Amino acid sequence: MAVADPKATHGMLVVGEETAYLSHLPMFMRPHDFQVLLEAAFTNDAGDAQQVYADDRRTTGTAVYTLKPERFVLTELVGEDGQPARTSFTGTLFRGHFERGGTELLDPVTVEVRHVVHFRRFDPHAVRPTELTYLAFGKGDERFLAHLVTMPPDFDHVVAMRQAPGASGAELTDDVLRNGPALAITGRPDGPGDRLREGDQVVAGLVGDGPAGTDLRLVTGREFYLEEGELAAGEHSH
């Protein structure tokens, strides 16, 4: 019989201004061994949480914002249909990393989970992709790539991106991005030294979906987060 996960503090990176996206900060140990991307919104008693966050990001230019949620079981977030089973939780929003000297911005804040973009527990038998692989998500002018985490040693990495016209005419629409498609970056092995850098112009192909050989021309923007240490092995802890 499967052992139930305990409640824990599941720290999350926050990106996006018009729409907030949360990226769970993973490790290769229970109960943190998940890669999770959520579309969310912030609320509070004053009714200005989302605006306070967005204004602070625009004003300070800070790349890293993190959320320290209440302790809960991460699997409560998703139901059998892959969408939110638990639609809200509370926490504290920080400018910077909450474990590394971040500044408290909103406490308490309620997180409303609008959509589950990606939710996956790490498979101990997983095989590392042969090509550098990212999950694409976002909407409108705010689009992002999160490195697909598979097995140690690995790295957690989130960058902004935009799509440039490609030969195939395939497009990463908001509807496509809503499901967090995996994209393989042509000609790059899957390692931190070959990760995407700000200003890169690359060709990518959809993994396991869409026409075979579809090329997508991507231009990377700002780097929001990079972490290798906590994914170096399976026994790290917060």
How are helices and strands ordered from N to C?
Answer: EEEHEEEEEEHEEE
Helix-residue proportion? under 10%
Count of DSSP-assigned helices: 2
Neighbour order of strands in the largest sheet: 1-2-3-6-5-4
Number of beta-strand segments = 12
Q: What percent of residues are in strands? A: 35-45%
Q: For the report, how would you describe the main beta sheet?
A: 6 strands, antiparallel, barrel
User: Which consecutive residue ranges, at least 5 long each, have pLDDT under 50?
Assistant: none
What is the terminal-to-terminal distance? 27 Å
Structure description:
The protein is mostly beta strands and 238 residues long. The chain has 2 domains: 12-122, no CATH class; 133-230, no CATH class. The protein is built from 2 helices and 12 strands. It has helices at residues 49-60, 174-177; strands spanning 12-15, 20-24, 34-43, 65-69, 88-95, 103-121, 133-139, 142-147, 156-164, 182-185, 201-206, 216-227. Strands 1-2-3-6-5-4 form a 6-stranded antiparallel β-barrel. Strands 7-8-9-12-11-10 form a 6-stranded antiparallel barrel. The protein is globular and about 50 Å long. The model has no long low-confidence stretch (mean pLDDT 92).
Task: Sum this structure up briefly.
With 238 residues, this protein is mostly beta strands.
Summary tags:
single chain, 238 residues, mainly beta, 2 domains, six-stranded antiparallel barrel, six-stranded antiparallel beta barrel, 2 helices, 12 strands
